[in-house]
Amino acid sequence: MMHFDFLVCSERSGSNLITKIMDAHPNVCGPFPSHILSYFAPNLYRYGDLSQDENWRCLLEDVVFFLEKGQSLWLSKISVDQLIGQTTRRSLAEIYRVVYEREAEANEKQRIFAKENRAYGYIGFMLSHFPEAKYIYLVRDPRDMALWWKESSARGQIQSGAGQWKEDQASSIRVYGYLRDTGNILLVKFEDLILETERQARRICDHLGLSYNDQMLRFYEKDIVRKNADRLTSWSDLQKPIIKDNVNRYKTRLTEVETRYIEALCSEEMDFFGYEKDYSLDTSLDALSSQLPEEDFTRKFTETEQAVYSTFEVAKKRIEQRRLY
Predict the structure, then answer these.
(1) What does 219-280 look like in DSSP terms, one character per residue?
(2) Confidence (pTM)
(3) What string of DSSP letters covers 181-217?
(4) Domain holding 293: CATH number?
């Protein structure tokens, strides 16, 4: 069994960047996200008793279909029969292990660095099934994260982006508290990763018991990275060197009211991470919220993105409609 390490993160926190930096290490496979845990763990009950052959095969078929229709391109592919032959017990964790180990083998790597959105929701799963794993906790300034929500119109704008950040950090901080005293989790700020990439990469390697390698800073040269970056706009920056001025962009792109709202909503968590506020908290959150424009939940996709997301929706619905219990 290969060694697994996991990323705890929030969306648009630089999670794909840090995963690609790790993937460029000669010994580490950090593929683009599979989302297996994000979608199958909450829906596992739908498959009933996995000791029944019909239920077990149905789960395997859905995982294979899900990977085929996923957002990410991997070097490896797997069939239902291959999963049956390579799994040693009937569990989602065993499926997860085999799927990732095959990708690591395809990349000629010896260990795995896995990103799953909202990993805090599956911490019990990971601690139970991957007890030797270590964790990297990546966080980004909520004002810059909310700015991305505003500029991309992804599921809302400032209020949605800031609300998602607060929800994610409130839960992730608890995970950090559980693991900090064990020495199994390392906190990394996106801003530090951007401005002092090599130093942070060395910190991460030390934490994971790896030797630093200069190839980690040339992640954008890999062909599989460029192919994935062409699929989604949110991944496009991965095909070029790190943009050093990709911090504090909110200072010129958010209004004062927007910045005040984010700082008021996320005040406690910002204090925990040491993010300094630009304004005093002298206006109520409700008053600030009333001054924000109505949120727009529409988003324009490129033709390629529309094809990727539409296909992925088919796979998600297939899982959500299962009733085998």
Answers:
(1) GGG-HHHHHHHTT-GGGGGGGS---TT-SSTHHHHS-HHHHHHHHHHTHHHHHHHTPPPSS-
(2) 0.94
(3) TTT-EEEEEHHHHHHTHHHHHHHHHHHHT----GGGG
(4) 3.40.50.300
**Which residue range forms the structural domain that includes residue 121?**
3-320
Output phi, psi for 5, to 5 deg: -125, 155
Helix (H, G, I), strand (E, B) or coil at 285: helix
Classify residue 135: in a domain, yes or no: yes
Count of structural domains within the chain = 1
Tokens of 209: 């018991």
**Short-list 4, 32, 35, 36, CA closest to 18:** 32
73 in a structural domain: yes
Residue 36, pLDDT score? 95
325 in a domain, yes or no? no
What letter does residue 12 receive in the DSSP assignment?
Answer: T
Three-state secondary-structure class, residue 133 = coil
Instruction: Kindly give the interhelix angle for 303-320 and 36-43, rounded to the nearest 10 degrees.
Output: 20
Mean pLDDT by 10 residues, the chain (325 residues): 94 92 98 94 95 97 97 96 97 98 98 92 93 97 93 77 95 95 97 97 98 97 94 90 92 97 97 97 95 83 89 94 89
Distance between CA atoms of residues 100 and 31, nearest Å: 8
Asked if residue 84 is part of any domain, the answer here is yes
Strand partners, 29: 112
The reported pLDDT for the residue numbered 153 is 57
CA dihedral of residues 126, 132, 136, 137 (deg, nearest 10): 50
Contact by Cβ (8 Å): 250, 150: no
| Structure tokens, 191 | 């801003």
d(CA 11, CA 139): 10
In angstroms, rounded to a whole number, what is the distance separating the alpha carbons of residues 115 and 94? 17
